[in-house]
Amino acid sequence: MSQNKLSSKLNTLYERAAGLYDKKKYKSSLNTIEEVLKKKPEHADSNSLKGILLLELVSQEEALKYCKKGLAKGITRSFPWRAYGIYNKKIKNYIEACKCYKRASNNDKENLALLGELSSFQFITRDFAGYLETREILLKKQPQKRGNWYAFALANHLTGNYDMAINAIQQYQKSNKLVSQSEIIELALFQNDIIEESGNIKKANDHLDKIFTVITNKLLWKEKKARYFLKLGNKQRAEKMYYLLLEQNPDQIEYIKGLEISKGLLNNNEKIEELDSDRLVKLQNFYQELNDKYPQSLLIKKKQLEIAFDQDFKNKFISFIIPQLKKGIPSIFSNLLSLYRPSKVEKVSKKILIIQETLIEFQKHLESRQFELIKDEELKKNVMLLEESRASLLWIYFYLAQHYDRLEKYTLSFEYLDKAIEHTPTLVDLYNFKGRLFKHVGDTEEASRFLEKSRNLDLADRHINNLSAKYLLRNDNITRGSDTFNIFMTDLHNFPNWRYFEVSWMTNEVGSSYLRKEDYPKALKMFNQTINNFHAYFDNQFNYHSFCLREGNLRTLAKLIKFTDQVFTHQFFWVGARGALEIYLNLHDKGKEFRKELIKQCEIEEKDLQIKLDKELSNPKLDDDEKKLREDDDLVGKKLIAKENPLKEAVKIIEILEKQAPDYIETHLLALKVYTKMGNFENALNSINKILEFNSNDFQFHKLLMEFFLKVENNKKMTDKVNNLKKRLEINSLSEYNQQFLQKNISIIEHRVTAAEVMLLLEEDKDKAIEIMMEVDDLTYENKRLINTCTNVFLKLQKIDETIANQYREKYSAKFKYSTIFNPQIIQVRKQKKLEKEEEEKKKRQQQQKEKEEKENEEKVEKEIKKEEN
Questions:
Q1: pLDDT at position 499
Q2: CA-to-CA distance for 91 and 241, rounded, in angstroms?
Q3: CB-CB contact of 436 with 447 (8 Å)
């Protein structure tokens, strides 16, 4: 009997094992397949099945061994290739998985389920040509299934075969009875999207007219119509359509922009400052007309403020701000943030001063309440309007507090915020902002205290609860931060399962806190969780692909492609990736002995946690699903830390970034750092070439480039390529190039500091380098706030020379008087006050206890006297 043929009895066992695997009963399935392998150890399908079972139960290494064995014994069979595809899917190697499913399908051409799975992999790997080929086969095999028609139309659309895609939809509509109105609408709109994407806007416009009666969402129809008119150059009709849209929603920015273009007032991406006086007047008149027609529109009023200047701006600002202050709108400042963008144009930057002077004038008169002394009738009228609402002064205080915070004038910001709190001590927004203000000035402890105070004022608000949790974590209070967050996340017998719900910002904050404490295992575990979350978002395409085809949501599926192509560019993923990379690089630098010591510490901690977890899992009230949520095979991150080569793990993250976010300079900066560290100079050179396409003057790049040159100089294989690079960058010597970089960016703090760091790398004048790093006054900076830039400089100086770092801190302690880094005595004073308060409360409690005891004794004596008298 052939090694791949089973007896009837063994075949029954094999079928049972396969059925148990499909039902996700992996342990039972493994026990069953082991019986088959005892009798037929070389059976290809059984070895492959064991491989994918071990993948779920044991480890990837063991799984791979059996998957490869199954493949070797049955290379012409279908299942071993499918199993190997499942293995590759598990390790996120989708391209290889796709190849495996292709081979599996070639070995079993009649297996339609296998073709369906193959098409999902082709969809995810963006192999649209292969996807089209597979979906065409499925359509020919099963033309009665509408999902196959949908997929075939989508495949043609994705490959640019627009006419064939439209033809497929039309054929389906002729040969099949559409089951619902929603399906008719979806196909009509998808067909219109295809025509638009093909570039034939006139045809798309004509088609849109034909389907007018079909489309129930008339707003969407009008939006498309306006866009088509604009693309066709029919600006008059586009203008008319955008006015119709504004009637429905005058606060939609896209409609406003459409009108600007259709009326020839402003082109795409054209700045207000670039307009000549005539065009500016026309634009101002246009917005005045809109404001007269739609007086309730906040957006139109904001746009008016953006294009008004000097006295005209002041008048419009007053008419905008007074109703907002009277109503008590907390978001007034955030609504006007666009006015605070830095500008080199004087009349634009002057707006901030006008706002400041206007509000301070209102404040002065509302505080004095001597309205009869106001000589300016217009000013008096405005002040009296504000006086109608007792809350006006509160919101002026609040606005000015945010205003001065934005200008980094923190003392004034605190003054106005304290006035607001004194005016209305129960307003949650004030404590929220005070927490943010303390964060901005560098005092995380006070920031978390005020957010906690805000939370206690409104315990039912999830957003404030989350903010409080975030600020507690940024103050490195991990236990309280997690407990606070879990208030709204407890479920399944009070199990706080925020990791299960893929809350990436939370895992990032916890990870960052552990990283600041240099608890690398736990930090890496959290950042790894974030990375896994985004893989899960990406993997959801498997489910959504089949779901959307089944439900006929073709437009949603097309949008899904655009979303998932960008998912790894989300800021939460970047935080997790940066954190994990920093840890891997630190682990590499600190060496094997350091990692061994970490593993020992992990084993001690893990032992106690495992006992606690086992006790929890033994709770009879928990069902299997609840137990699964609590299970954790790496309680403290030991497995991640124990990886043999940290740089190899770092490269895995870099490969994700290079594939998913190649259009971001940070991808290549991180790649250059890792490749240089591991001595992979070819890849490092590729990263350099890509960075040069973005910005050769980036301060992070400058230092990494110098480190690359220093490390590669003894590598003879790279000599010619390195020399070519130096020639391209006109580098005669590293020292000279660094001085040129310094002179070119002499007024920017980050660039100056980088040049100084390179001087230290090149072992040049240390005193001169430190002198460059110490200077801050009258310089610009790329960070959002000066204090963040200077904090980074201080931390760098600490690594160079503790004494110099302390001098830097002392030099700028007055400038950043609220920062606990620049003024560590703040924490000491706070601790002392806390101890004094505790001591005072202790004495008070003792005094109360003493008085209580004395009173009880007196009462006892009185009772005794009364008893004797009786």
A1: 65
A2: 51
A3: yes
Contact 565, 634 (CB under 8 A): no
**pLDDT tops 90 at residue 268:** no
Do residues 789 and 408 touch, judged by C-beta distance below 8 A? no
Residues 575, 579: Cα–Cα separation, whole Å:
6
Does domain 1-109 fall under CATH 1.25.40.10? My reply is: yes
Which helix (H) or strand (E) element contains residue 491?
strand 490-491
Q: Is the dihedral of CA 553, 554, 557, 562 positive or negative?
A: negative
| Cα Rg of the chain, angstroms | 34
User: Shortest CA distance to 403 belongs to which of 393, 416, 394?
Assistant: 416
State how far the Cα of 762 lies from the Cα of 388, in Å rounded to an integer. Answer: 68
For the chain, how far is it from start to end, CA to CA, in angstroms? 112
Torsion of CA 132, 133, 135, 138, to 10 degrees: 170
Please, are residues 297 and 290 in contact by the beta-carbon 8 Å criterion?
yes
CA neighbor of 432 nearest in space, from 446, 453, 415: 453
pLDDT tier at 178, thresholds 50, 70, 90: low
Distances (CA, A) of 848 to 837, 842, 869: 16, 10, 31
What is the residue type of 598?
L
> What is the DSSP code string of 466-478?
HHHHHHHHHTT-H
The residue type at 493 = H
Confidence band, pLDDT 50/70/90 cuts, at residue 658:
very high
Q: What are phi and psi of 770, to 5 degrees?
A: -70, -35
% of the chain with per-residue pLDDT over 70? 97
- What's the CA gap between 678 and 270, in Å, rounded? 46
- pLDDT value of position 168: 93
At 362 the three-state DSSP class reads helix
Q: How far is CA 164 from CA 139, 169, 177, 273, 585, in A?
A: 14, 9, 21, 47, 51
- Is the pLDDT at 496 greater than 70? The verdict is no
> How far out from the chain centre does Cα 77 lie?
44
Are 566 and 599 in contact by the 8 Å Cβ rule? The answer is no
From the number of C-beta atoms within 10 Å of its C-beta (0-12, 13-18, 19+), residue 848 rates as exposed
CA atoms lying within 13 Å on the CB side of residue 796:
19
The angle subtended at Cα 327 by Cα 325 and Cα 328, nearest 5°, is 65
User: 């899992």: which residue's tokens?
Assistant: 617
Higher pLDDT pick, 65 / 613 = 65
- Determine the Cα–Cα distance for residues 705 and 233; give it in Å rounded to an integer: 49
Give CA–CA dist 34/46, Å, rounded: 8
Q: Where are the alpha helices (DSSP H) in 176-309?
A: 181-198, 201-210, 218-231, 235-248, 253-262, 277-293, 298-307
pLDDT tens sequence across 704-763: 999 999 999 888 889 899 999 999 999 999 999 999 999 999 999 999 999 999 999 999
Tokens of 103: 């081979």
Please say whether the beta carbons of 435 and 467 come within 8 A: yes
Q: Is the pLDDT of residue 831 over 80?
A: yes
Nearest alpha carbon to residue 637 among 677, 568, 583, 573: 583
* Coil vs helix vs strand at 490: strand
Distance between CA atoms of 777 and 32, rounded to whole angstroms? Answer: 75
Residue 520 near residue 586 (C-beta atoms within 8 A) = yes
3-state secondary structure of 99: helix
Beta carbons of 718 and 711 less than 8 angstroms apart: no
Q: Are 388 and 362 in contact (CB under 8 A)?
A: no
Q: Which residues, 6+ apart, have CB-to-CB distance to 186 below 8 Å?
A: 552, 553, 554, 555
| Long-range contact set of residues 280-286: C-beta below 8 Å, sequence gap at least 24 | 280/307, 283/307, 284/308, 284/312, 286/259, 286/260
CA distance 261 to 233: 10
Judged by DSSP in three states, 495 sits in strand
Give the type of residue at 214: V
